[in-house]
Input
Amino acid sequence: MKGIIGVAKHLDDNAEMLANEIVQEISQSPNFEALKEELEQAIIVYTEFIRFLGESLLSSENNIPEGLVEWSKTNGKRTASQRERISIIITRYPPTRLVFIDYLTKISIEHGLSTEEVVLINKRFNYLLDISITETVIVFEQVKDEIIKKAQQEVLKLSVPVVPIQDKTAVLPLIGSIDSERAEYILENVILKILEMKVEYLIVDFSGILNIDTIAERYLFDIYSVLRLQGIEVMMTGIRPELAQTVVRNGIDFSSIKTYATVKQAIETQKS
Output
Protein backbone atom coordinates (compact mmCIF):
# COMPACT_ATOMS: atom_id res chain seq x y z
CA MET A 1 0.00 0.00 0.00
CA LYS A 2 2.93 2.32 0.68
CA GLY A 3 3.94 2.10 -3.00
CA ILE A 4 0.42 2.95 -4.16
CA ILE A 5 0.36 5.96 -1.83
CA GLY A 6 3.61 7.06 -3.47
CA VAL A 7 2.05 6.75 -6.93
CA ALA A 8 -1.01 8.71 -5.77
CA LYS A 9 1.22 11.52 -4.47
CA HIS A 10 3.25 11.48 -7.69
CA LEU A 11 0.08 11.83 -9.76
CA ASP A 12 -1.17 14.73 -7.66
CA ASP A 13 2.17 16.55 -7.62
CA ASN A 14 2.81 16.11 -11.36
CA ALA A 15 -0.73 16.14 -12.77
CA GLU A 16 -0.25 19.05 -15.17
CA MET A 17 3.09 17.81 -16.49
CA LEU A 18 1.71 14.30 -17.03
CA ALA A 19 -1.40 15.73 -18.74
CA ASN A 20 0.81 17.70 -21.13
CA GLU A 21 2.87 14.63 -22.03
CA ILE A 22 -0.19 12.40 -22.39
CA VAL A 23 -2.02 14.88 -24.64
CA GLN A 24 1.07 15.29 -26.82
CA GLU A 25 1.36 11.54 -27.27
CA ILE A 26 -2.35 11.06 -27.90
CA SER A 27 -2.31 13.82 -30.53
CA GLN A 28 0.28 11.83 -32.48
CA SER A 29 -1.97 8.76 -32.71
CA PRO A 30 -3.03 7.70 -36.24
CA ASN A 31 -6.22 9.42 -37.51
CA PHE A 32 -6.38 11.64 -34.42
CA GLU A 33 -7.42 15.17 -35.30
CA ALA A 34 -7.88 18.10 -32.94
CA LEU A 35 -7.51 21.84 -33.01
CA LYS A 36 -4.90 23.57 -30.87
CA GLU A 37 -7.65 24.96 -28.63
CA GLU A 38 -9.04 21.44 -28.14
CA LEU A 39 -5.63 20.11 -27.11
CA GLU A 40 -5.23 22.95 -24.61
CA GLN A 41 -8.66 22.13 -23.17
CA ALA A 42 -7.72 18.43 -23.03
CA ILE A 43 -4.66 19.27 -20.89
CA ILE A 44 -6.89 21.05 -18.39
CA VAL A 45 -9.37 18.14 -18.37
CA TYR A 46 -6.71 15.44 -17.99
CA THR A 47 -4.93 17.39 -15.24
CA GLU A 48 -8.13 17.29 -13.19
CA PHE A 49 -8.76 13.64 -14.03
CA ILE A 50 -5.25 12.62 -12.96
CA ARG A 51 -5.82 14.33 -9.60
CA PHE A 52 -9.14 12.49 -9.25
CA LEU A 53 -7.30 9.22 -9.92
CA GLY A 54 -4.65 10.04 -7.31
CA GLU A 55 -7.38 10.76 -4.78
CA SER A 56 -9.13 7.49 -5.61
CA LEU A 57 -5.95 5.44 -5.09
CA LEU A 58 -5.83 6.58 -1.46
CA SER A 59 -9.09 4.69 -0.87
CA SER A 60 -9.16 0.93 -0.39
CA GLU A 61 -12.47 0.65 -2.24
CA ASN A 62 -13.73 1.70 -5.67
CA ASN A 63 -15.06 4.95 -4.29
CA ILE A 64 -15.77 7.67 -6.79
CA PRO A 65 -13.90 10.83 -5.75
CA GLU A 66 -16.16 13.69 -4.73
CA GLY A 67 -16.49 15.99 -7.70
CA LEU A 68 -15.71 13.46 -10.47
CA VAL A 69 -19.36 13.03 -11.47
CA GLU A 70 -20.03 16.78 -11.48
CA TRP A 71 -16.80 17.38 -13.35
CA SER A 72 -17.83 14.82 -16.00
CA LYS A 73 -21.28 16.40 -16.31
CA THR A 74 -19.68 19.80 -16.82
CA ASN A 75 -17.54 18.34 -19.63
CA GLY A 76 -20.67 16.89 -21.25
CA LYS A 77 -22.53 20.22 -21.05
CA ARG A 78 -19.57 22.15 -22.45
CA THR A 79 -19.09 19.74 -25.35
CA ALA A 80 -22.79 19.75 -26.25
CA SER A 81 -22.95 23.55 -26.03
CA GLN A 82 -20.02 23.76 -28.44
CA ARG A 83 -22.13 21.81 -30.98
CA GLU A 84 -19.68 18.88 -31.13
CA ARG A 85 -20.89 15.41 -32.07
CA ILE A 86 -20.82 12.64 -29.50
CA SER A 87 -18.93 10.42 -31.96
CA ILE A 88 -15.96 12.81 -31.81
CA ILE A 89 -15.78 12.38 -28.04
CA ILE A 90 -16.13 8.59 -28.10
CA THR A 91 -13.54 7.97 -30.83
CA ARG A 92 -10.91 9.79 -28.79
CA TYR A 93 -11.20 7.51 -25.78
CA PRO A 94 -9.46 4.35 -27.11
CA PRO A 95 -6.10 6.08 -27.81
CA THR A 96 -6.50 8.05 -24.59
CA ARG A 97 -7.01 4.86 -22.59
CA LEU A 98 -3.96 3.16 -24.10
CA VAL A 99 -1.62 6.10 -23.50
CA PHE A 100 -2.85 6.54 -19.93
CA ILE A 101 -2.30 2.84 -19.16
CA ASP A 102 1.26 3.02 -20.54
CA TYR A 103 2.05 6.02 -18.33
CA LEU A 104 0.43 4.53 -15.22
CA THR A 105 2.26 1.23 -15.72
CA LYS A 106 5.59 3.02 -16.14
CA ILE A 107 5.04 5.16 -13.02
CA SER A 108 3.95 2.11 -11.03
CA ILE A 109 7.09 0.16 -11.98
CA GLU A 110 9.29 3.15 -11.11
CA HIS A 111 7.73 3.14 -7.63
CA GLY A 112 8.47 -0.56 -7.22
CA LEU A 113 4.88 -1.79 -7.25
CA SER A 114 4.06 -5.47 -7.57
CA THR A 115 2.19 -6.89 -10.55
CA GLU A 116 -1.00 -7.06 -8.46
CA GLU A 117 -0.64 -3.41 -7.49
CA VAL A 118 -0.02 -2.35 -11.10
CA VAL A 119 -3.18 -4.22 -12.13
CA LEU A 120 -5.10 -2.58 -9.27
CA ILE A 121 -4.08 0.91 -10.38
CA ASN A 122 -5.00 0.22 -14.00
CA LYS A 123 -8.34 -1.25 -12.94
CA ARG A 124 -9.04 1.81 -10.81
CA PHE A 125 -8.15 4.07 -13.75
CA ASN A 126 -10.45 2.18 -16.14
CA TYR A 127 -13.26 2.23 -13.59
CA LEU A 128 -13.06 6.01 -13.12
CA LEU A 129 -12.69 6.63 -16.85
CA ASP A 130 -15.78 4.55 -17.62
CA ILE A 131 -17.78 6.36 -14.92
CA SER A 132 -16.63 9.67 -16.39
CA ILE A 133 -17.51 8.63 -19.97
CA THR A 134 -20.98 7.47 -18.89
CA GLU A 135 -21.79 10.68 -17.03
CA THR A 136 -20.39 12.82 -19.85
CA VAL A 137 -22.47 11.05 -22.51
CA ILE A 138 -25.68 11.13 -20.43
CA VAL A 139 -25.44 14.88 -19.85
CA PHE A 140 -24.31 15.47 -23.44
CA GLU A 141 -27.49 13.78 -24.69
CA GLN A 142 -29.67 15.69 -22.21
CA VAL A 143 -28.24 19.05 -23.29
CA LYS A 144 -28.48 18.11 -26.97
CA ASP A 145 -32.11 17.10 -26.48
CA GLU A 146 -32.80 20.46 -24.84
CA ILE A 147 -31.09 22.30 -27.71
CA ILE A 148 -33.07 20.32 -30.30
CA LYS A 149 -36.34 20.87 -28.43
CA LYS A 150 -35.69 24.60 -28.23
CA ALA A 151 -34.87 24.70 -31.95
CA GLN A 152 -38.06 22.78 -32.73
CA GLN A 153 -40.07 25.28 -30.70
CA GLU A 154 -38.51 28.12 -32.68
CA VAL A 155 -39.36 26.35 -35.94
CA LEU A 156 -42.94 25.85 -34.73
CA LYS A 157 -43.25 29.57 -33.99
CA LEU A 158 -42.04 30.41 -37.47
CA SER A 159 -44.19 27.77 -39.14
CA VAL A 160 -47.51 29.06 -37.80
CA PRO A 161 -47.44 32.87 -38.13
CA VAL A 162 -50.60 34.87 -37.52
CA VAL A 163 -50.61 37.60 -40.19
CA PRO A 164 -52.84 40.66 -39.68
CA ILE A 165 -54.20 41.81 -43.05
CA GLN A 166 -56.66 44.52 -42.04
CA ASP A 167 -58.46 45.85 -38.98
CA LYS A 168 -59.46 42.94 -36.68
CA THR A 169 -58.80 40.39 -39.44
CA ALA A 170 -55.84 38.00 -39.66
CA VAL A 171 -54.72 35.00 -41.67
CA LEU A 172 -53.22 31.82 -40.25
CA PRO A 173 -51.40 30.21 -43.22
CA LEU A 174 -50.66 26.52 -42.67
CA ILE A 175 -47.68 25.33 -44.67
CA GLY A 176 -46.00 21.95 -45.12
CA SER A 177 -46.93 18.88 -43.10
CA ILE A 178 -49.20 19.11 -40.07
CA ASP A 179 -48.68 16.46 -37.42
CA SER A 180 -50.21 16.20 -33.96
CA GLU A 181 -47.27 18.05 -32.32
CA ARG A 182 -47.59 21.05 -34.60
CA ALA A 183 -51.39 21.07 -34.29
CA GLU A 184 -51.14 20.90 -30.50
CA TYR A 185 -48.73 23.84 -30.56
CA ILE A 186 -51.31 25.86 -32.52
CA LEU A 187 -54.01 24.93 -30.02
CA GLU A 188 -51.89 25.82 -26.97
CA ASN A 189 -50.00 28.88 -28.22
CA VAL A 190 -51.35 30.42 -31.40
CA ILE A 191 -54.87 30.79 -29.99
CA LEU A 192 -53.47 32.94 -27.17
CA LYS A 193 -51.67 35.10 -29.72
CA ILE A 194 -54.88 35.52 -31.72
CA LEU A 195 -56.80 36.57 -28.60
CA GLU A 196 -54.04 39.04 -27.66
CA MET A 197 -54.29 40.59 -31.14
CA LYS A 198 -58.05 41.12 -30.56
CA VAL A 199 -58.83 39.46 -33.88
CA GLU A 200 -62.52 39.15 -34.73
CA TYR A 201 -62.14 37.37 -38.06
CA LEU A 202 -59.57 34.63 -38.69
CA ILE A 203 -58.90 33.01 -42.03
CA VAL A 204 -57.20 29.61 -41.70
CA ASP A 205 -55.61 28.86 -45.06
CA PHE A 206 -54.93 25.20 -45.91
CA SER A 207 -53.63 25.76 -49.45
CA GLY A 208 -50.00 25.20 -48.44
CA ILE A 209 -50.65 21.90 -46.65
CA LEU A 210 -48.76 18.92 -48.07
CA ASN A 211 -50.27 16.31 -45.76
CA ILE A 212 -52.05 16.08 -42.45
CA ASP A 213 -52.59 13.16 -40.08
CA THR A 214 -55.91 12.16 -38.50
CA ILE A 215 -55.03 13.37 -35.00
CA ALA A 216 -53.93 16.74 -36.39
CA GLU A 217 -57.23 17.07 -38.25
CA ARG A 218 -59.14 16.83 -35.00
CA TYR A 219 -56.81 19.32 -33.30
CA LEU A 220 -57.38 21.84 -36.08
CA PHE A 221 -61.13 21.55 -35.80
CA ASP A 222 -60.84 21.80 -32.01
CA ILE A 223 -59.05 25.10 -32.65
CA TYR A 224 -62.04 26.18 -34.73
CA SER A 225 -64.41 25.33 -31.86
CA VAL A 226 -62.33 27.13 -29.24
CA LEU A 227 -62.10 30.30 -31.32
CA ARG A 228 -65.84 30.25 -32.01
CA LEU A 229 -66.47 30.09 -28.25
CA GLN A 230 -64.30 33.21 -27.92
CA GLY A 231 -66.52 35.04 -30.38
CA ILE A 232 -64.07 34.87 -33.28
CA GLU A 233 -65.49 34.11 -36.70
CA VAL A 234 -63.32 31.48 -38.39
CA MET A 235 -63.19 30.92 -42.13
CA MET A 236 -61.21 28.18 -43.84
CA THR A 237 -59.70 28.45 -47.29
CA GLY A 238 -57.73 26.29 -49.70
CA ILE A 239 -59.12 22.94 -48.49
CA ARG A 240 -58.45 20.49 -51.31
CA PRO A 241 -61.19 17.95 -52.19
CA GLU A 242 -59.14 14.97 -50.93
CA LEU A 243 -58.60 16.66 -47.56
CA ALA A 244 -62.30 17.53 -47.29
CA GLN A 245 -63.26 13.92 -48.06
CA THR A 246 -60.85 12.59 -45.44
CA VAL A 247 -62.21 14.98 -42.81
CA VAL A 248 -65.81 13.95 -43.53
CA ARG A 249 -64.88 10.24 -43.42
CA ASN A 250 -63.35 10.78 -39.99
CA GLY A 251 -66.68 12.03 -38.68
CA ILE A 252 -65.85 15.73 -38.38
CA ASP A 253 -68.86 17.99 -39.00
CA PHE A 254 -68.00 20.43 -41.78
CA SER A 255 -71.47 21.92 -42.19
CA SER A 256 -71.11 24.84 -39.77
CA ILE A 257 -67.74 26.00 -41.12
CA LYS A 258 -67.47 28.76 -43.69
CA THR A 259 -65.10 27.62 -46.42
CA TYR A 260 -63.75 29.44 -49.45
CA ALA A 261 -61.47 28.55 -52.32
CA THR A 262 -58.94 31.32 -51.64
CA VAL A 263 -58.00 33.88 -49.01
CA LYS A 264 -58.94 36.65 -51.45
CA GLN A 265 -62.44 35.21 -51.83
CA ALA A 266 -62.88 35.04 -48.05
CA ILE A 267 -61.81 38.68 -47.64
CA GLU A 268 -64.11 39.87 -50.41
CA THR A 269 -67.05 37.95 -48.94
CA GLN A 270 -66.38 39.47 -45.54
CA LYS A 271 -66.39 43.01 -47.02
CA SER A 272 -69.67 42.43 -48.75
Q: What stands out?
A: The longest helix spans residues 115-159. The radius of gyration is 31 Å. The chain has a mean pLDDT of 82.
